[in-house]
Structure formats: structure tokens, C-alpha cells
């Protein structure tokens, strides 16, 4: 994708600077576009834990490169296992992180220590390239849904709900959190179909949930869409159901950090409420994901998926830009009020219309996933 006409991936290697790792500091967006230089395992682990890099596919790719950086300091088998576990523990919910580390270990355990650094960089690069290809394929399969919605809106005699106030032929997509190219290596998951629809000239508009408490929608999704020229509107998290009731949402597309083999979906906190509202208003609710996000070991998302509990300070404080242009953080709650901060929730498969993967679309259940991935089922 492009920023001001310049093509970027979300992670890349600077071979002229000691094979260091470069990523965007997502905590500085949308106010500043700053690039981090990461050179050690600890720097990578800190960047993941503090959400300077975030998004399930991206943190897997960054962690893979983090292991390559660690091997530059010590390529012994003992260090390999230790460093891999440290990186894998940085965030618990997104399955891509553990998947990427396990793939790196499979490649490196049978490689002689002197050859491990080169092999690690090569394998991490393959993980990145495969992620780009998967997300592009997800975009193509999801594009068909937007095209179908656009065709339905253009059908002669079709009438939208009387209360609809937006352009009658425009396709309105609602998304929650950020599942765009900044959350992957390129393209994104939930946003990939939207980018392709926009680039093909379809009249598509995005309702962007702000996504409290870290505001990934308001800060990152809106920034991405704006830089690409996609029409969008930032809305409060609690406005989605109201818009659905009034016919202002044609479909919902979200990303995910983990999907069980039965189709349960773990995504940013608040996703479950959007799925409930969509079901009540007969709005299709789709989840876009690469196969690396499927956890074939789990069947019951509510019981088995570990939900990350983050710092309550993310709830009690908020960062923004003041009128004079300075960036500041302010407290928004009373001094002695406690806060809870579960980072994700689980949407049961029964509320999911379907899954969009690199191999196509399927029902959100074990049979549906098995139809696309028989070798895993």
C-alpha cells in the first residue's frame, strides 16, 4: 500500500543498516508517521507488548524477524529455545504469534548454529511474502461480497429502508478495530476487499468504529482509508446498532486474532456486540482471516481462548492532539474509580455469517473450514 504515493510494507529489513528491522510506530499514528529501528530481541518484544506493532498477522511476522535478530547475538540451541519463548509470550490472544514462532523453530532446530541467522532471515521473509499473497486473495474473495451488495443496491425497484439518509446506491461497510495493511504485512484482511472495491470504482463507504479504549479504528483505520482515498466516517462504538436499525449498514467485515476449528471468533473487544446487532437486523457479519489465524487445536472459543487483560490505564487515560498541535495524554475518569480492560471478546460461530480466507469463503463451522482446508481437518 502507499503513503503519500510511496509504496510500503508494514515491516521490512534494512540490509544497509546491519540487517535491522524497520516498522511503523503505530502508537504515533495518526499524528506522526515514525519508523522504528529494531535491532535486538528485547526491542522487538517491547514493540509487540506496547502495541507499537499490532495486528495478528503483523506481530507474527515481526516476532519471526525478532528471532533472527536474537540469533545474531547467540545462535546456540539453548538461546534459540529461550528467545523463542520470550517472544511468544509477549501477547497471548493472537494465534499468529505462536504459529510464526513454531514455524521458525521447525526450520531452525535442524539447522546448524552457524547457519541459523541466514536461515532465520530467509524463513521470516517467506512468512511475510506468504502473508501478502494470502491477504490479496482474501481481498479478492471479499470483493465479491461488496460487488453483490452494490448490484443489489442498483437493482431497479429496490427500496432501502425509508429512514436511510446516505446515498441510496452506496455500499456501506462497517468495520471494528483495525484489520488493514498496517495490521498485516500488506493489504490487510477486513480492509483488503474494501481497497479493491474502491480501486475498481465501486461506490463504497466505511463506517469506522472508534474502538475504545485504544482507538485503533479512529486512529489507524481512518488514517489508512484516508491515505488511500476511501470515503469513511468515524463513529462511536455504540452507534453501529443504531445505523443497522436504520438500514445504513449493508454488511459488516471484521478481522480476527484467533478462530477455533468450530468457527468461534476472537477479535477486539466490542466485536461480539456488533455481531449481536447485525443478527438482530439481518445484516451479514463476515470475518476475514488468513489460515494462519485458525487454531485447529481449539473448539470452544469461550472456554479455551485466553483473553488478554491489558493495563487499566488505557481505559482511564486517553491520548490526542490539542488545538496547538501538541500530543498529550489526559485522565478521563475520577481518581479513585477502578477500570477493567479486556482486550478481546469471543463471537460465537452462530452469529457469524461466514469466514473469508485466502482459499475462499465458508460457513463459520467445522464443516465449512474443513471444506477449504481438508488437510488440517
Characterization of this structure:
- The protein has 377 residues and is α/β, with parallel strands linked by helices.
- The protein is built from 12 helices and 18 strands.
- The longest helix has 38 residues, at 116-153.
- The chain is globular.
- The two termini are 34 Å apart.
- The model has no long low-confidence stretch (mean pLDDT 94).
How are the elements arranged and paired?
Layout: E1 2-3, E2 6-7, E3 11-14, E4 20-24, E5 35-38, H1 41-49, H2 56-73, H3 77-88, H4 95-108, H5 116-153, E6 171-175, H6 192-199, E7 204-209, H7 216-228, E8 232-235, H8 240-245, E9 251-254, E10 258-260, E11 265-268, H9 271-280, E12 285-288, E13 294-295, H10 301-304, H11 313-316, E14 317-321, E15 327-331, E16 344-347, E17 354-357, E18 360-362, H12 366-372
Binding site for substrate: 54-56, 91, 216, 267-268
EC number: 5.3.1.23
Active site: 257 (proton donor)
Amino acid at each position: 500500500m502507499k503513503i503519500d504515493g510511496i509504496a510500503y510494507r508494514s515491516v521490512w529489513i534494512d540490509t544497509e543498516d546491519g540487517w535491522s528491522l524497520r516498522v511503523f510506530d503505530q502508537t504515533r499514528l495518526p499524528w506522526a508517521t515514525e519508523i522504528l529501528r529494531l535491532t535486538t530481541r528485547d526491542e522487538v518484544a517491547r514493540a509487540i507488548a506496547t502495541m507499537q506493532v499490532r495486528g495478528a498477522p503483523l506481530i507474527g511476522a515481526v516476532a519471526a524477524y525478532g528471532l533472527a535478530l536474537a540469533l545474531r547475538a547467540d545462535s546456540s540451541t539453548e538461546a534459540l529455545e529461550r528467545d523463542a519463548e520470550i517472544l511468544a509470550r509477549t501477547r497471548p490472544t493472537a494465534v499468529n504469534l505462536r504459529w510464526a514462532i513454531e514455524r521458525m523453530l521447525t526450520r531452525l532446530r535442524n539447522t546448524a548454529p552457524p547457519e541459523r541467522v541466514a536461515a532465520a532471515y530467509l524463513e521470516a521473509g517467506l512468512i511475510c511474502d506468504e502473508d501478502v499473497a494470502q491477504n490479496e486473495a482474501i481481498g479478492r474473495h471479499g470483493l465479491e461480497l461488496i460487488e453483490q451488495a452494490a448490484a443489489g443496491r442498483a437493482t431497479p425497484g429496490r427500496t432501502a429502508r425509508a429512514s436511510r439518509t446516505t446515498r441510496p446506491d452506496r455500499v456501506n461497510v462497517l468495520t471494528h478495530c483495525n484489520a488493514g495493511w498496517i495490521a498485516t504485512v500488506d493489504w490487510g484482511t477486513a480492509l483488503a476487499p474494501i481497497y479493491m472495491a474502491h480501486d475498481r470504482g465501486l461506490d463504497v463507504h466505511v463506517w469506522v468504529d472508534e474502538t475504545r479504549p485504544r482507538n485503533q479504528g479512529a486512529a489507524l483505520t481512518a488514517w489508512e482509508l484516508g491515505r488511500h482515498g476511501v470515503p469513511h466516517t468515524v463513529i462511536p462504538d455504540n452507534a453501529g446498532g443504531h445505523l443497522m436499525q436504520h438500514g445504513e449498514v449493508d454488511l459488516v467485515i471484521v478481522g480476527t486474532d484467533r478462530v477455533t476449528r468450530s468457527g468461534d471468533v476472537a477479535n477486539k473487544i466490542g466485536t461480539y456486540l456488533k455481531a449481536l446487532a447485525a443478527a438482530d437486523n439481518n445484516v451479514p457479519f463476515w470475518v476475514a482471516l488468513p489460515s494462519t489465524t485458525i487454531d485447529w487445536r481449539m473448539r470452544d472459543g469461550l472456554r479455551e481462548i485466553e483473553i488478554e487483560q491489558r493495563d487499566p490505564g488505557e481505559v482511564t487515560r486517553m491520548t490526542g492532539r490539542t488545538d496547538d498541535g501538541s500530543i498529550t495524554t489526559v485522565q478521563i475518569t475520577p481518581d479513585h474509580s477502578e477500570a477493567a480492560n479486556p482486550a478481546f471478546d469471543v463471537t460465537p460461530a452462530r452469529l457469524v455469517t461466514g469466514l473469508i480466507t485466502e482459499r475462499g469463503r465458508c460457513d463459520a463451522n467445522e464443516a465449512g473450514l474443513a471444506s477449504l482446508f481438508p488437510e488440517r481437518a
